[in-house]
Amino acid sequence: MSATADFVETVTIDTFDSLVLKSSTPVAVEFMSYGCEHCRLLEPVLQSVAESLGSQVAIARVNIAADQELASRFDIRGTPTLVMFLNGVEVGRAVGPVPTVSGVREAIVGTFDGDARS
Amino acid sequence: MTQALDEPILLFNDACAVCRVIAHWVMQSAEREMGGATLIVRPIGTDPVALRAMNPGLDIWDAYANIHLLMQDGSMKTNGEAVAETLRNLPNTRWLARAFQFSFLGRRPFQSMLDVAYTILADSRPLLGCESCGIPPPWLRPFHWMAQQMAGKPAAKNHSVIAATTVLPGS
Fold it and tell me: Which fold, A9-117?
């Protein structure tokens, strides 16, 4: 995988609260690990979705191999898992999303749209 | 800028049981009688920036996908070439590594066979369990399934999921 612009910000246990829970915009957090083949397949898709969504939705990643505490806190039992946060509250999650731009975009935008309507 | 290395560095995936066993064997085989090692064996780790500092061409996703051997001259060997070079650096397998250099009609048949064998092994690693994905090895799966059932939690769906499943809290 070649080095290109990274539209997905890596968050850690130290930055999770400020960048995710206190964010004024919706945030989709991918719980992943670099050793997971499914996460590898999802990576270019997430980059593409993050670029297309721009400032509408922030997309971040948590490496559970480095931040196991966050994985336990959000009960992550497999990677990749996308967890959507709005105003510091989890509003949905997608486990093992199919690695297509439309599938991931729908999982993220659909969750936030559904939450905005309810 | 590539770091100058005293010995080649073999990177391995420490979240993969098969890789750990192979890395342990390489580590033991690389020990010199008078101390030191012919090869440094190091886990890939979790820091993409630290890997790029070792070699700007080293991408963490690629490092986890297949074997990488960082050479002293700043070059990198991957896949079957890295396996052959690793064997060449181990005192007990140097003789075997010569086979992979054997050339016939401009081709290296044994190296080609090694490349295929490595690709098959690398691709089948997830079937043997993926700790980071939450998938136990096959021999532990029945116990894992029972534990999940007793805890009332469904098993992780990775490696079998074909469609996104969005779960809203409280649903």
Answer: Glutaredoxin (3.40.30)
